[in-house]
TrEMBL record:
Cleavable signal peptide: 1-28
Coiled-coil stretches noted in the UniProt entry, renumbered to this chain: none
Domain of life of the source: Bacteria
Transmembrane segments: none
Organism, scientific name: Lacipirellula parvula
Name of the protein in question: PEP-CTERM protein-sorting domain-containing protein
InterPro entries, alphabetized: Dockerin_dom_sf (IPR036439), EF_Hand_1_Ca_BS (IPR018247)
Keyword Signal listed: yes
PROSITE patterns membership: EF_HAND_1 (PS00018)
Amino acid sequence: MFTGRLIMKITLIALLLGVSLCAAPAFAAVDSLVQIVSGPVATGGSNSIASFGYDPIGDVMYVSSFGAGGSLRKVVDVSTNPVGTTVVFESSLQLYYRDGDADRGVGSPMQSGISFNPLPIVNGNNVIAPYSMAIIADASTTYKPGFSSGTANRDPAASKRFYTYNRGELLSGGNASAVYTTIATMADLNNAAGVPLNTTTNNGRQVAWSGNGQWAYFGESSADHGGIWKLDPLTGDMERLVTGDANTEPAVVHNAGVDTIFFRGIASTGNVGGIDKITYDGTTASAASVAVSIADLRSFLEADSTMTPTIFAMSSDSEGNVYFSHSDSTPERRGIFKLDTEGRLAKVATQAERNQYLTELLGATTAANSNTLRMQPRTIQHPTAGAITQILYAENATNGVTGVNVFKTGDFDRNGVAGQAADMSQFSAALKVRGAAITNVDNHKFDLNANAVVDWKDVKILQQFVDLPNGDANFDGVLDLVDLDVVGANYYTASPTANKTWATGDFASVDPLYATTAVDANIVNLVDLQLFADTWLNVLDQPITKTQLTSRGYVGQFLDDVLDVFGFNTALAGDFDLNGVVDGADFLAWQRQFGTNVTPGTGADADGDGLVDGDDLAVWQGNFGATAAAPVAAAVPEPSALLLGTLAVAGVAGLRRRQSVR
């Protein structure tokens, strides 16, 4: 997490050096994903990427790889012309693992997190400068002398779990102890957890620094060590702040001296699959509580109770937004998501976008790995969107580092402003009926919950970020009679085909969650009209007259329903011009029609006998000066109540009529 002051400093340095923090251009179909460092530069060959750490001040990255010949490489000029060189070889790391004892066996090197200190660390009278030291999390194992395998032969005291890196460089054959300093072993973690004989830990995730930069947090998921821990980078002291299966790279948001630490949901909160949090002020940690419930996350993703979200990586930016990756593919909902400071959820990049990006980058159809680990946000200057957050992550398909541009939700033309006419026009054009899969790859950017669909659910997400009232069919930010005309043209009595979207008046459903299988899916009916009127009258408090409604050319059932939902269902006797007032204009209407036969109850026929005569004038005289009460639409009930009412009451017979024509 970078502070605002540090970001300003980084930007100033970049300007002074003439360095653009804007990475290479993204691909046409996927403008949110950018290759930052290629595999050959990052890992030096065919080795798999394990982790990386980024220094935004120097624009330098250190990348660790695993497998035969795995190494730690330094990449300079990351944002302009990345060049990589090996600074710690695998042989040097193994010497460090063995503590100088060549008779010890070691597991495959696995540096699973590299996290540089973002702020100065006070060490007595000394100060460790920002980005001059990294905490490396390691998941490898060192064995007892004479052994190279077997759980019982692991040596907890020699198995490094966390060590610091001083950014030094070694020649091939040197011992990495010259650049790495052990701060915590498996034995240290055992002792902190009170399980001294344990030989299994699972801390293979990068740490997150505290808001004041003086310590770090890490997640652990093994049975004896599971939880969120505090780690002192100088002494190696560890303290478990919460117990549970916290197999996550945590995120930290700092405010007024208190850290809020986010991590995957744990059993003690009843929120496995969701997102939990604790607060910590450096002395006292709160109990774990729910940040995003699994129910809310499933609802956002439109996944049923059979899916338990899987969150391995999290991070945060300087504004306090939290980012997390979700890797469960049953159903397909993988991607990187944002939980903003107002508690709103939106996708940043979907699995489909990653697939398309990699396919175009590599020149062959490529399926992205489920995980987007080691997420590290930075600020860049985008050529059209301005200053934005970019999340760096380890891309397994390239064994390099990819950046995800975090555009404002609703800024589809990438000009830095969300919800403008051009944005809404693009979004509206991409809308399909409920549950219809995206067929145009360019439309994945409009999919705001990573389900490979752009439909009603995405509209509801978008409404949280832009000015889009319920009923605004043409997406112009205004609810007016033009929108009501759209509803009328597509009302079930005029157009019964189930092919409607929000843009053609399908704003709601009798189903509480508007499932794709709802009985009124993709149909415009009374429920949509009720929501329209409720928004007009009770949310926006806009005036309306009966004449405005009757002069639009509406007829039949739609006209009856419109007058009903807007509160004009009781006629005002003598109000022949339907303007809500019995006045001289109505007398003139009677005078012009006097002696004519009309459809009973229409025109100036106040008594409904089909003849405009003196009796109708008497009604006018008796009500002269009367006004209709201001229309107030009945508040639209909660969906569950609406569903019951619609199915049970003849007053919502529109549903039955609609069902009969499907």
